[in-house]
Amino acid sequence: MVSVKFSVSTKLAIASGISLLLVVGMLANEQINNRAIESAYAEALREQEVVKLTGAGTAAIRNGLIALGSLRAGRSREQVESALANLQTAAKDGRERMEAARQLSLDSANQARMDEAASLFDQFAAAAAPFATARQETLEAESLQNSLGVRWGGAWENLESTLVLSNTGNRAEVDSSLREGARQFMDARNAYWRFMSTEEPQALQHMKQLLLSGMGALRSISDPDLANDVKALTRILEQSGATMEKGAKAVKAASDLWKAKMVPLSGQIDAVVQQITAAGEEAAQASVQAAGASMNRSEQIGYAVGAVAFVIL
Q1: What's the CA angle centered on 143, arms 142 and 144, to 5 degrees?
Q2: Pick from 123, 122, 112: which is nearest to 272 by CA?
């Protein structure tokens, strides 16, 4: 075996070359790892911002639900309009938060969820408009029904005054028909208010039957002395029946929208936003862990290079 001997100067030159290569490699590795760390931390910051935005989206849906409750409970046109405006503002804010979060997120699955949430916010706002209209129509019907009740009382007093001064021959029969018409009208009103609070189909059907019976009782009165007063009562009963029908339809429309649109949409938005938030938190945590791992690798490589250089030198 041939033994190769190097002079001291040659050994030093070789060691210096190897050391230089190691230093260059160490610096290159450090730069690569630094970029990886910066990228990982930048991604973590982006995902944290996504979490922040989706948190604001959660607040938006909560505000929307509060406004929806106020919309359903509103007792005046002004209250309904104010609640609708608040709900639409909350939905718009939620949509904008989802759009901003989508611009930051790098997760395609989460981007799809954000698109879905933005669309659901739009649907929520769109469904609120006809719901508010139905609520306003319900309140208008209630107000008109109360006014008609007052008018009925005044017309009934006028009829009683006319009846005292009239020469009606069949007074007992007329009085019976009037009392029957009045009773049927009051019972119809009670059935109407029961339907408005319970939405029982039986109450609505009973209301219609009572109105028909009341109309029949009043129209059976043919005394000319009472014709004008009976006509006034009949007109009020007809108007009341039309108002009851309109109010019942409005209540049914609001109830259908509530069950089919408002409640399901709010639940879907809440569920999707929670999924977005969870995915963002998970991605942010993963990015932080990746950055930490890169730092550890960089330190380990640095120690190894230093050890090799020490041995060579």
Answers
A1: 95
A2: 112
